[in-house]
Design brief:
Blueprint (H helix, E strand, L loop, with lengths): L1 H7 L14 H14 L3 H26 L2 H12 L2 H7 L6 H19 L5 H14 L6 H13 L1 H8 L3 H24 L2 H7 L9 H9 L20 H14 L6 H17 L10 H22 L4 H32 L1 H4 L5 H8 L5 E3 L7 H11 L2 E3 L19 E8 L7 E8 L8
Parallel strand pairs: 1-2
Antiparallel strand pairs: 3-4
Helix pairs in contact: 1-2, 2-3, 3-4, 3-5, 3-6, 4-15, 5-16, 6-7, 7-10, 8-9, 12-14, 13-15, 14-15
Length: about 450
């Protein structure tokens, strides 16, 4: 609801107003609302599209470091995990952390890993790094990439392969894409606080923020009052990740393991500023789970290097285990968000309820203490409901009025199984000449 309100507030002068935080996502969501109106589908559509692209780039990224079959299995384990499925249907900019990191890492690996650098790839890389900076705390990633480009010899060599005009064009596009962000921070200085830390951040809560951020990720014994369903990663996935860590200990010098280490450090440290960034741990978990699966398969093959039947015998149980991991993750996601009270309380199904039971151009009284009043104003704008916020104006719209309760009768109470306060919608009919006309 908050995301829909923020995206709808983007006007042509959004730069002058300093509305630049999460700008790429909100522009896409505003376009979705404009085309499809206000509904669960239009709110979630940008996250679904970006999640599909993120899954594709995760496959490409893993394919840079693993065989095709391992890369596909690793990406499937990631994209069908509870954490990724939640991001794909959440309808908020959280999915951007996974998308930008997967895209930038894949582009970087293509630039550094190839003898000849495609100029278009470099230009795209500069553009994506600039656009990622609009997402809170990914500015640190952009700064780190810039510092690495100056220090790391492989990166300097890759840049030297570009002609002068290609390098100038890349820097120009980077600067142009970053200009609205700079202007927005100058006109609205609190944006910098949001992009680098978070509103009302205190260093005294740093460690506590990290603990709270990662608590739902690997907890197998209790649920947390959070939007994240614990555990976001199943026990079998954790075992694969630990196996991947053990297999990587002796290869810490490789680019893959260096990147994984930096991403884990980034997710942990920045989670101390803002717990939402902990979701960035999905990328290193994808890499480590693929490494764990590869290690198990290679170990089995090494025991029977010349026996194809033994290879097949080892693959069959692995396929069964992978199927069980995926199946348990899907069932955990589908049923957990419906039946875990401490989690489901953080969500609302009021929007589809209203659209199912209330006709358009109908007065809708929103109580003054409703925390989502801005969202209902937006609902009135897009779906043509008459939103009433003050009971003094009810008579004007022929809606329910406590002062004239004798003229109205309660027709129906709509409840929701997803809310502790289950009575979500009261439908009244207006009595006209005792005929009970609605």
């Amino acid at each position: 609801m908050d995301s829909a309100v923020l995206s709808s507030q983007l006007e042509p002068d959004f730069i002058a107003k300093g509305n630049i935080v999460n700008l790429p996502y909100y522009l896409l969501q505003k376009a979705s609302l404009h085309i499809f109106g206000l509904s669960l589908f239009s709110i979630k559509l940008p996250s679904i599209i970006i999640a599909v692209m993120a899954g594709f780039f995760i496959i490409l990224l893993l394919n840079r470091w693993f065989k095709n079959d391992v890369a596909i299995i690793g990406s499937v384990l990631t994209t069908l995990s509870t954490a990724f499925l939640f991001l794909a249907g959440n309808g908020t900019p959280l999915i951007m952390y996974v998308f930008w990191l997967a895209l930038i890492l894949w582009q970087g690996s293509k630039i550094v890993g190839n003898d000849r650098v495609n100029p278009l790839l470099v230009i795209s890389f500069f553009l994506c790094v600039a656009l990622s900076a609009y997402t809170p705390h990914l500015l640190y990633v952009a700064i780190t990439i810039g510092a690495a480009g100056l220090i790391h010899p492989h990166l300097r060599f890759a840049l030297k392969q570009l002609s002068l005009w290609q390098l100038i064009l890349s820097v120009a596009i980077f600067t142009l894409a970053l200009t609205p962000l700079v202007i927005g921070c100058v006109l609205k200085p609190e944006n910098l606080q949001t992009l680098l830390f978070m509103p009302n951040f205190s260093f005294s809560n740093f460690i506590n923020n990290i603990s709270n951020a990662f608590a739902p990720f690997f907890s197998f014994s209790m649920a947390y009052n959070s939007i994240f369903l614990a555990p976001l990663f199943g026990l079998a996935t954790v075992v694969l990740v630990i196996t991947g860590i053990l297999a990587s200990i002796g290869k810490m010098y490789t680019s893959r393991n260096i990147i994984v280490s930096l991403l884990v450090i980034y997710a942990i440290v920045i989670a101390g500023f803002n717990g939402d960034v902990a979701i960035a741990i999905i990328i290193p978990i994808a890499i480590l789970s693929a490494a764990g699966f590869e290690s198990i398969v290679d170990k089995w093959y090494s025991l029977f290097p010349e026996n194809p039947y033994a290879h097949l015998f080892g693959i069959v149980p692995m396929v069964i285990i992978i199927g069980l991991i995926i199946g348990s993750g899907l069932s955990h996601f589908v049923f957990g968000y419906h039946y875990v009270p401490s989690v489901s309380d953080n969500f609302s199904d009021d929007l589809p309820t209203i659209q199912e039971f209330v006709k358009t151009d109908t007065p809708l009284l929103v109580t003054e203490d409703n925390a989502n009043r801005d969202f209902y104003r937006l609902l009135g704008k897009y779906e043509h409901y008459i939103i009433i916020e003050n009971t003094d104006n009810v008579d004007k719209y022929a809606a329910f009025s406590a002062n004239k309760a004798d003229k109205f009768s309660l027709k129906q109470i709509i409840t929701s199984p997803k809310s502790r306060n289950s009575d979500r919608l009261y439908i009244y009919s207006k009595d006209t000449d005792n005929k009970g006309e609605e």
